[in-house]
Design brief:
This protein is an alpha/beta fold. Among the domains are: 123 residues, Methylthiotransferase, N-terminal domain (Rossmann fold, 3-Layer(aba) Sandwich), CATH 3.40.50; 117 residues, Transcription Regulator spoIIAA (2-Layer Sandwich), CATH 3.30.750.210; 58 residues, OB fold (Dihydrolipoamide Acetyltransferase, E2P) (Beta Barrel). It is built from 14 helices and 21 strands. The strands form six sheets. A six-stranded parallel sheet has the order 2-1-3-4-5-6, sandwiched between helices. Helix 9 runs parallel beside helix 10, helix 10 runs parallel beside helix 12 and helix 13 packs parallel to helix 14. The radius of gyration is 22 Å and the shape is globular. The structure holds S-adenosyl-L-homocysteine, iron/sulfur cluster and FE3-S4 cluster. Iron/sulfur cluster binds next to helix 7.
């Protein structure tokens, strides 16, 4: 038997890329590849890239440059670029970096085995199609390897919303939902392999409308179907758009015990003028009313969000409206970014805010967010939470997991198994995690 070939995958960007990387590794598993943790001993290197901000895209070229030495040492080494930069700039990557053998977009990676074979025959392979066939169905070679207790599962892809700043509708294509039966089969398979928590993924996951037994299903209906899967203890979903928070999904947060009390609901800005220019089609006020309804269904829900500062035409007053919104909502987590011009998006053509002004606003917003996050985390001390243990901690005898609110929690109890779900009393709050003591296994 020949020794397995080694595959090194580096993943950038969102959780959907993490899921895709797992699937790409499985697809190449059928070609005799096993994953390796270092590029030095790899026969194939794949960068699964992100195009969302300028800096993310630039990283790809600098990373590729670093592989020059490896390719000189091992001429059989194949180098591939996958993901959203591959989709947006595939031809240019091939032109700019002759080291690259293969470019594959996020909708065509089920063709990787055949593309890999072409590179082995000395050809270059480029595929950035948006094919008709279901790539997940086409990926048959899913090995039954054991898994950790948490997993991602993509249920919806692409986006039709065309926010004026965003590349996703161009890199991932139009919105598509996977049929419910395939998702349920995949979920059961994950549970059989040790998974106890599944995070349903989609660029617009709450717009899910996949085919079910009696017509299209909503995300809430899919969650209720997953609720019946024995052995699956926790369900999460991300990312949601405020306009797609339907009544049944809000109600599920109150009624479905397996659905965790955490919701990532990006609003981007607190200024109605900026929201309009972003093509977001919600207002700050409609967002507040929505949050009231969600909190009425599940009072302890922890909210997180995304914000862009320095979008074209953002004045100090517009920025202040964002600060006010954050004050009013109270986020457990929030991610904030300086607006980054993306080629081909409408906002890239508009008059830009000065870089210094963007940096200063980002600094103020991040200060507020950090204080808020910390206050919410500190407020957990003395409370009892449920923790799903995922791995050993940094120190001997320490185990780390996530609470239902997605806070990292560590306990000093080496007897806890990975995959155990325990009641834990929170005893301390550090900069990035909580400390706790086991009350009971649940
Ligand atoms: N599908 C998700 C998020 C997509 S990208 C959603 O609709 O919420 C993740 C985050 O990146 C966005 O929420 C936004 O805050 C940020 N982002 C997207 N494009 C950006 C750009 N051009 N500049 C800065 N931040 C951006
Ligand atoms: Fe991008 Fe807007 Fe679609 Fe989210 S909703 S992926 S921010 S276009
Ligand atoms: Fe990035 Fe593509 Fe995800 S641009 S954020 S990897 S959808």
């Amino acid at each position: 038997m020949t020794a397995p070939k080694k595959l090194f995958i580096k993943t950038y960007g969102c959780q959907m890329n993490v899921y895709d990387s797992e699937r790409m590794a499985e697809a190449l598993g059928g070609q005799g590849y096993v994953e390796t943790a270092t590029p030095e001993d790899a026969d194939m290197i794949l960068l699964n890239t992100c195009h969302i901000r300028e800096k993310a895209a630039e990283k790809v070229y600098s990373e590729l440059g670093r592989f020059k030495g490896l390719k000189a040492e091992n001429p059989d080494l194949k180098i591939g670029v996958a993901g959203c930069v591959a989709q947006a700039e595939g031809q240019e990557i091939m032109r700019r970096q002759p080291l690259v053998d293969l470019v594959v977009g996020p909708q065509s990676y089920h063709r990787l085995p055949e593309m890999e074979a072409r590179t082995r025959a000395g050809e270059k392979a480029l595929d950035t199609d948006f094919p008709e066939e279901d790539k997940f169905e086409a990926l048959k070679s899913r090995p039954k390897a054991a898994r950790g207790p948490t997993a991602f599962l993509t249920v919806q892809e692409g986006c039709d919303k065309f926010c004026a700043f965003c590349v996703v509708p161009y890199t991932r294509g139009a919105e598509v939902s996977r049929p419910a039966d395939r998702i349920l089969t995949e979920a059961r398979d994950l549970v059989d392999r040790g998974v106890r928590e599944i995070t349903l993924l989609g660029q617009n996951v709450n717009a899910y409308h996949g085919a079910g037994p009696d017509g299209d299903m909503t995300l809430a209906q899919l969650i209720w179907a997953l609720d019946k899967v024995d052995g699956l203890e926790r369900i999460r979903f991300t990312t949601s758009h405020p306009n797609d928070m339907s009544e049944d999904l809000i109600a599920a947060h109150g009624d479905c015990a397996k659905l965790m009390p955490y919701l990532h609901l990006p609003v981007q800005s607190g200024s109605d003028k900026i929201l309009k220019r972003m093509n977001r089609s919600h207002t700050a006020d409609s967002y507040f009313r929505l949050i009231e309804r969600i909190r009425a269904a599940r009072p302890d829900i922890l909210l997180s969000g995304d914000f862009i500062v320095g979008f074209p035409e953002e004045t100090e007053a517009d920025f202040q409206a964002t600060m006010d919104l954050v004050e009013e909502v109270g986020y457990g987590y929030a991610y904030s970014f300086k607006y980054s011009t993306r080629p081909g998006t409408p906002a890239a053509e508009r008059a830009q805010v000065d870089e210094d002004v963007k940096s200063e606003r980002l600094h103020r917003l991040q200060g507020l967010i950090t204080r808020q996050q910390r206050a919410i985390q500190d407020g957990m001390v003395g409370r009892e939470v449920s923790v799903l243990f995922e791995k050993q901690g940094r120190f001997d005898g320490q185990m780390v997991g996530k609470s239902e609110y997605l806070h990292a929690v560590h306990v000093n109890d080496a007897k806890v198994d990975i995959g155990a779900l325990c009641r834990v009393r929170i005893t301390g709050s550090g900069s990035n995690s909580l400390a706790g003591e086991i009350v009971a296994a649940s």
